[in-house]
Design goal:
alpha/beta; Rossmann fold; 4 helices; 6 strands; His_Pase_superF_clade-1; Phosphohistidine phosphatase; His_PPase_superfam
Length: 165
């Protein structure tokens, strides 16, 4: 059995249009969303294991803000390949992961994460919103390299707007 946790970065700021996309920080709404999501994510088993994040400033800041609101600091690996916008890149990265890891968490970007949910999952997702979280579980997958050959079930979907401060 393998579990995939997907978290989209929180809402980013466009106040400085001269910044490169990778350098955009979070805006105030993004900061609020992180506080809202921290409590709900703390109750979601396994998402803290094998945490991998895009190098984009907004993705890194999302984890930093979540970490501030959680009882224990988060630890993650920055993965340049996760700064992408298509699910094919994510699938290629996932297929190369070590099979000893039963759970993987990816913090990244749309449309890649929404496409990945729709490619693997049993529900069609119109959009994984900023700071949104999805858990996908495949009871039959044993090798990440075979990720496309096994069905996944969506067992959690959290959105900041559904939570209270």
């Amino acid at each position: 059995m393998k579990t995939l946790h997907l978290l989209r970065h929180a809402k980013s700021s466009w106040d400085q249009p001269e910044l490169a996309d990778i350098d955009r920080p979070l805006n105030q709404r993004g900061l609020r969303s992180c506080r809202r999501m921290a409590t709900a994510l703390a109750e979601s088993p396994g998402w803290l294991e094998n945490l991998h994040c895009s190098p984009a400033r907004r993705a890194q800041a999302t984890l930093e803000q979540l970490s501030l609101a959680l009882p224990s600091p988060l630890q993650w690996q920055t993965e340049p390949a996760l700064y992408c916008f298509d699910s094919h890149t994510l699938l290629t990265w996932l297929a190369r992961q070590d099979d000893q890891h039963a759970q993987l968490t990816l913090v990244g970007h749309n449309p890649a994460l929404t496409e990945l949910c729709n490619t693997l999952g049993d529900n069609t997702l119109n959009n994984l919103p900023t700071c949104g979280y999805v858990r996908l579980v495949s009871p039959t997958l044993t090798h990440w390299a075979d990720i496309l050959a096994h069905p996944f079930q969506q067992t959690a979907f959290l959105r900041p707007k559904d939570l209270t401060d």
